[in-house]
Amino acid sequence: GLILAIESSCDETSAAVIKNGDTILSNIVASQIKSHMRFGGVVPEVASRHHVEQITQIVEASLEKARVTMEDIDAVAVTEGPGLVGSLLIGVSAAKALAFANSKPLIATNHIAGHIYANQLVQPLQFPLLALVVSGGHTELVYMPEDGVFETIGETRDDAAGEAYDKIGRVLGLPYPGGKVLDEMAHEGKETLNFPRAMLQEDNYDFSFSGLKSAVINTIHNARQKGDDIDPYDIAASFQAAVVEVLVAKTIRAAKEKPIKQLLLAGGVAANKGLREALRNAVAKELDEVELIIPPLSLCGDNAAMIGAAAYSQYQNQDFAQLSLNARPGLLL
Ligand code: ATP
Ligand code: MG
Ligand code: FE
After folding, report:
1. ipTM score for this prediction
2. PANTHER family, per this entry (predicted)?
3. Closest CA to 136 of 109, 111, 165
4. Number of CB atoms found within 10 A of residue 216's CB
């Protein structure tokens, strides 16, 4: 099965052609980061306008790169949510138009499922598995007893990990999104400050990052007020150490308590070097017979290839959407 997939939930306009849910024939991603940078974050109206301007040529480019035409395509998949309503609507409208005009089935796919299934483009998935989803809007542990079945066993009670990165980046005056830059800075700095590790000892799989975020921001403000020198690289290293320690510890604990074959890392923050390394080390040391899959950097951030991967099991189950499909900004797994 050949799936044309479209992703437009936030500030990336993307289209991909995916074969059998595991092979990328094309994956075109147009990032809008430059347009949002001067505002220090994603401006929804600006994002929608860019999606409208880009979507047709991105879809065409993805077909061309894959060397296929709409006739070869078996289904059109699109992110129906979660995300920004205006952004989602552009992708949903484009997918509906393509499906209708070419008499192809339409598949409505969950963006977070997409982040998880990005791993299927790396290795065949084996169930049961556990996925740590860390992105701009989500931080959760998802248990999958079988293909297409999602149980969220823990999640953040406040900020997502990526959100904490981006807000601290903003206070430090770093370009948006701050996550990538802070990660690089963390590797240049020393862990001189001991920031809180929230909920580390608690007997659940939930997370909390707002206390950590406030502690870091207060430290920066206090130092500025007193005219003290603080090294932003040390702040980055200390903050990242706290985030990574909690994420890894809770994930390993869940992985030990669930009968899993694989552990997957997913979402934009999966690009974090510190997290990738710490998780690899912890799995090697503490989990026997669990296969760890970490997506390449190109599949961590938002992209349509992951939507095409997630859509494949829906395609096999003939889980098709109506042409009346609407965007669902608050969609849960
Ligand atoms: P969601 O997937 O929850 O709907 P989103 O799609 O906006 O949200 P993603 O695109 O999946 O989020 O991820 C973007 C986030 O990843 C941003 O917060 C960004 O700062 C963060 N990020 C990207 N690279 C890194 C990195 N190397 N270290 C930490 N964070 C990173
Ligand atoms: Mg983005
Ligand atoms: Fe995302």
Report:
1. 0.99
2. TRNA N6-ADENOSINE THREONYLCARBAMOYLTRANSFERASE, TRNA N6-ADENOSINE THREONYLCARBAMOYLTRANSFERASE, MITOCHONDRIAL
3. 165
4. 24
- Per the annotation, does 138 bind a ligand? no
List the structure tokens of 199: 């909920």
Ligand 2 mean position, distance from CA 289 (Å): 34
Which atom of ligand 1 is nearest the CA belonging to 82?
A: 4
Residues 6+ apart with CB under 8 A from 297: 271
Q: Is 83 annotated as a binding residue?
A: no
All residue ranges of the chain with pLDDT < 50 are none
Ligand 1: lining residues by beta carbon, under 6 Å: 10, 82-83, 111, 115, 135-138, 162, 165-166, 177-180, 183, 267-269, 271-272, 301-302
Q: Whose CA is nearest to atom 16 of ligand 1?
A: 268
pTM, two decimal places: 0.98
Query: Is 228 annotated as belonging to a binding site?
Result: no
In this predicted model, what pLDDT tens digit does every residue of 188-223 receive, in sequence order?
Answer: 999 999 999 999 999 999 999 999 999 999 999 999
Provide the token pair at 169.
């980046």
- The single residue listed with the structure tokens 């059998």 is 20
For residue 107, give the nearest of 121, 93, 95 by alpha carbon: 95
- In ligand 1, the atom with minimum distance to the C-alpha of 137 is 3
Any residues with CB less than 8 A from the CB of 43 and at least 6 apart, and which? 36
Q: Is 206 annotated as a binding residue?
A: no
